[in-house]
Design goal:
heterodimer; A: Alpha-Beta Plaits; Gyrase A, domain 2; globular; B: alpha+beta; Alpha-Beta Plaits; 2 domains
């Protein structure tokens, strides 16, 4: 009765094997590396950059342990920190000849030195949180009210021109808080205005108010529109942050949305909070200006004589471009920019939407300048960058602009992102900040590791001393629990923090409960006179119900923490919940498999090595 | 090796009243301290700035305090953190100051007034975050309570679930009472520990109740106190050993985990000690007084007409 079918042993063996493989990367440690990523939003790191990095290192005779390209940029693995610094200087010189205007970010990084075949299986080391590796954490609150006000202001401007176009006479359009109020003198005009608005402004919800000659139409945003504006604002701000953080030279920044209106920014390894805050808080603007194409002007500008009222810029492809200083339109007038395709040619394109004032200006400009070029510039800390410089083909009215021609869909995507980045949707405020020094991070790891190790050692010693062979089985089950837990954390790439390590320790301390329950039950059965084989069987069976009940109550607490916890508590809760699940498997299935393997095949089993069994009324301690 | 050689069931229930009076007194004391002194909430809840710095030699707290006062920071707390070289500086939220800049300003003031400090950690929490955390914490506690009560009511009986939750909430209040009495810092990780303890000590009650149910079903002719005594006696060995093992782990955290894990481990320690006591000696009497009996676990057998006393028919 104490034999498992073969498939159960196979499952246990497979689980242990998988656990072992996915835990493995954590033992290899990290090796120094240099990472090359783009500092300019207009510059892409691709396979060519990789080749350039390789050739630079080869010609200088710096030996690398492998180079590869991923979403963050080109990474070069090096053998020690000396070579790492040397390679960094070398690449810095090669890639950023002009130090005041860096094109690339060359950052020091650490890469896991686990072998390639493990990485190919997505077996990666656990992802360490900031409190273990050092760095800065910011929580930014997006001012949604600000975003809404901005949007409502631009809608009221739209309404004014719409009413003028449709010849509806009104007594004033004003934004009052989060609503737009339009005044009318008579009912007839109000009805007319209402139908006009229904047709043209699908985002607005309209309500009649007032009496006699004091008639009003109150427009509020529909909930769906409200939600869309908020989502848009957060996405746009995240895009902008991405671009700016690139500049800091952080190897693996984390920029994530938290809740409806918050953004978490984590910069591992960064210590200079002042600079980080400065960069995060900076505002960028978008400007549309005309290109100066007077014959000869560009040549003289390149020779050093920039004509009055113009500025020299470099286009994306590297060609010089002379742009007039006069600003035609600013990013405030831009309401959206999305990548897409041309309706007729199916070429990739960027679709822009302008608000009503913007479209009026744009219509004028395009009418007067057919055949000429305009430049869209992104201005950040006084420095401008040409996003795109299209030729005007026809007059464009209605505020829907499409930029197309000779771009890939990837480029269209980037351009749209940049255009959006120029008009930060809403102001942001830092509401939480945490800086952890690198030495503290390393210390936290050691402390967490020591607590777990000594606790585990103490429990093991006691269990083996008290329950003998069954204690050893329990300890092996507990060790496999640890293995599963670390493997799961590595697989899920969940962030491990110091509270997370505490949760690992606690999970082990609590998981032993299941084995104690089982062992005590078996002893009890023996005490009541069962045969050893029967005692094992009933012991495990009886204990299982209890183990399940007790683990579920603990799990309820863990899930509540997971739902409501944030920051450190969440890190604790994730590990706590996972620990309960793995302990169910290891304490019941793994330990049973071991016991079955040891005792299951013996027909005439006389005793179990489970420590002394003392029976009441039996003076001779029956050491079985 | 066996620690517990118990010949007869220990008559726990005979002293039930005494145990409950002890509990009630501790509980009331804890509540008193909670209201009288209040919890010493960490920056995470109150909002504000926390700066941890490290000196190469033992830090002169007085000098730091005076230096910062001179630099215009009043109402600050300066204390050692873990060792004499580590110093923790706590600043309250101020409306007029650009909150995010405080960390740097303090560091530059320290450079002048008490040189040699190296920055270890800065935490700034805005007012809205703190309020939310407190709300979420209470919501989590509520969810745990409802979840556990429902589960136990489904699995056992409402009397069990009510007494288990009362017994364990009394633990929680006592932990909080300790934190209030000693003015230990109540941080987010302590909150996590408290909730984990709640789940963990309910375990304990579950195990005793499991035995109670089993005894009710198997053994006839025992009074309710006798059944409870039997259930507690037969699980006491497991209870002590399990808690001992968990405590070994927590002790190791207390010793090696450093200052960050210290209060976390401390909350767990108190929770584990009172967890044993309350789930065994508080929950069980409560069940008894709520009137649990054998009938609640035995499914009523349909009487067949004309059967004899044992219900046997042919």
């Amino acid at each position: 009765m104490n034999r498992y079918p073969l498939w159960k042993y196979i499952i246990v063996a497979c689980a242990l094997m998988t656990g072992f493989i996915y835990t493995l990367p954590n033992f290899f440690g990290e090796s120094p590396a240099v990472q090359v990523s783009s500092a300019k939003a207009t510059l892409k790191v691709d396979i060519k950059t990789l080749e350039r990095v390789e050739s630079t290192l080869r010609t200088a005779g710096v030996e690398s342990n492998g180079t590869f390209l991923d979403t963050n940029g080109v990474k070069v693995r090096l053998k020690d920190t000396d070579t790492q610094l040397k390679a960094k200087d070398l690449l810095e010189k090669q890639f950023n000849p002009d130090a005041s205007n860096p094109q690339y970010v060359i950052a020091l990084n650490l890469l896991s030195s686990s072998p390639q075949w493990l990485t190919n299986m997505h077996a990666l080391p656990m992802y360490l949180g900031l409190d273990l590796r050092g760095g800065v954490h910011f929580l930014l609150q997006v001012d949604m009210k600000g975003a809404l006000t901005k949007r409502l202001d631009s809608i009221s401007a739209d309404l004014r021109s719409l009413m003028r176009d449709k010849n509806v006479r009104h007594g004033g359009i004003n934004r009052e808080g989060e609503r737009i109020v339009i005044r009318f003198r008579d009912e007839e005009t109000r009805v007319k205005a209402r139908t006009t608005l229904d047709d043209n402004q699908p985002d607005l919800q309209l309500a009649d108010q007032g009496e006699g000659s004091e008639l009003r139409l109150v427009a509020t945003l529909k909930p769906t529109a409200l939600k869309r504006i908020q989502e848009f604002a957060i996405k746009q701000n995240m895009g902008t942050l991405h671009n700016r953080i690139n500049e800091l030279g952080v190897a693996e920044p984390v920029i994530a949305q938290q809740g409806a209106d918050r953004i978490v920014v984590q910069l591992p390894g960064v210590q200079d909070t002042a600079k980080a805050k400065d960069i995060l808080g900076r505002t960028a603007t978008l400007e549309i200006r005309m290109v100066d194409d007077t014959p000869g002007a560009l040549e003289s500008a390149q020779a050093g004589q920039v004509p009055f009222g113009t500025e020299l810029y470099v286009e994306r492809g590297g060609r010089p471009l002379l742009v007039k200083k006069q600003v035609v339109l600013t990013g405030d007038r831009l309401t959206d920019a999305q990548p897409g395709f041309d309706n007729q040619t199916q070429e990739p394109a960027v679709h822009l939407s302008l608000d009503s004032a913007g479209s009026r200006i744009f219509k004028e400009i395009t009418r007067e300048n057919v055949g000429k070029r305009m430049a869209i510039l992104l201005i950040e800390k006084g420095k401008g960058e040409v996003v795109t410089a299209p030729v005007i083909r026809t007059e464009i009215g209605g505020g829907r602009v499409q930029i197309s021609g000779s771009m890939s869909s990837m480029e269209a995507n980037d351009t749209a992102l940049l255009l959006r980045a120029g008009s930060l949707a809403a102001p942001m405020e830092i509401i939480e900040e945490r800086t952890i020094g690198p030495s503290l991070g390393a210390e936290n790891i050691t402390k967490g590791f020591h607590s777990t190790m000594w606790g585990f050692a103490a429990i093991s010693a006691f269990m083996i001393f008290y329950y003998m062979l069954f204690g050893l089985v329990s300890v092996i089950a507990l060790a496999s629990n640890l293995l599963f837990l670390i493997a799961l954390l590595s697989m899920l790439q969940a962030t491990l923090t110091l509270p997370g390590i505490a949760a690992i320790a606690l999970a082990l301390g609590m998981a032993i409960d299941s084995n104690v329950l089982i062992n005590e039950r078996i002893r009890e059965e023996l005490r009541n006179g069962s045969t050893p084989q029967a005692a094992i069987n009933t012991g495990y069976e009886r204990a299982f119900g209890t183990i399940l009940d007790s683990n579920i109550t603990t799990l309820i607490a863990g899930i509540a923490l997971l739902i409501f916890g944030s920051g450190p508590v969440r890190g604790f809760a994730v590990v706590h919940c996972l620990g309960i699940l793995t302990s169910l498997f290891s304490a019941v299935v793994v330990s049973r498999a071991l016991v079955n393997l040891i005792y299951g095949r013996r027909r005439k089993l006389e005793s179990l090595a489970i420590g002394q069994i003392w029976k009441p009324g039996n003076k001779v301690a029956a050491a079985k | 090796m066996e620690f517990f050689r118990i010949k007869k069931d220990i008559p726990f229930m005979r002293h039930a009243l005494a145990f409950n009076i002890i509990s009630l007194v501790t509980f009331l004391l804890a509540v008193f301290f909670l209201f009288h002194r209040g919890l010493h909430l960490s920056v995470e809840f109150t909002g504000g700035t926390l700066i941890e710095v490290n000196y190469a030699q033992a830090a002169n707290l007085e000098q730091i305090r005076e230096g910062l006062n001179k630099a215009g920071y009043t109402d600050i707390a300066v204390q050692n953190f873990g060792s004499s070289q580590d110093v923790m500086i706590r600043l309250p939220l101020k409306a007029e100051q650009s909150s995010a800049k405080i960390g740097e300003a303090v560091m530059s003031a320290l450079k002048v007034e008490a040189p040699g400090a190296s920055l270890r950690r800065v935490e700034f929490v805005g007012p809205q975050v703190g309020k939310e955390l407190a709300e979420n914490g209470s919501l989590a506690l509520l969810l745990v309570i409802i979840g556990i009560v429902l589960y136990l009511a489904m699995r056992f009986e409402w009397r069990f679930s009510v007494s288990a939750i009362i017994a364990n909430l009394h633990d929680i209040v006592i932990i909080l009472g300790f934190f209030a009495f000693f003015q230990w810092e109540f941080s987010l990780s302590v909150l996590a520990a408290v909730l984990a303890v709640l789940g963990y000590s309910v375990n304990e009650s579950v195990i005793v109740f499991d035995r109670v149910r089993e005894t009710f079903k198997k053994v006839r002719g025992l009074t309710t106190p006798q059944v409870l005594d039997h259930a507690i006696t037969s699980t006491i060995s497991r209870t002590i050993i399990t808690h001992g093992c968990t405590q070994l782990m927590v002790l190791s955290m207390l010793l090696f985990g450093g200052a960050t894990l210290y209060y976390f481990a401390l909350a767990l320690t108190i929770g584990i000690c009172f967890g044993i006591y309350s789930s065994v000696l508080v929950a069980s009497p409560l069940v008894m007084w709520l009137g649990v009996s054998r009938e609640h676990f035995i499914k009523p057998v349909k009487k067949i007409d004309g059967a004899n006393e044992d219900g046997a028919v042919v």
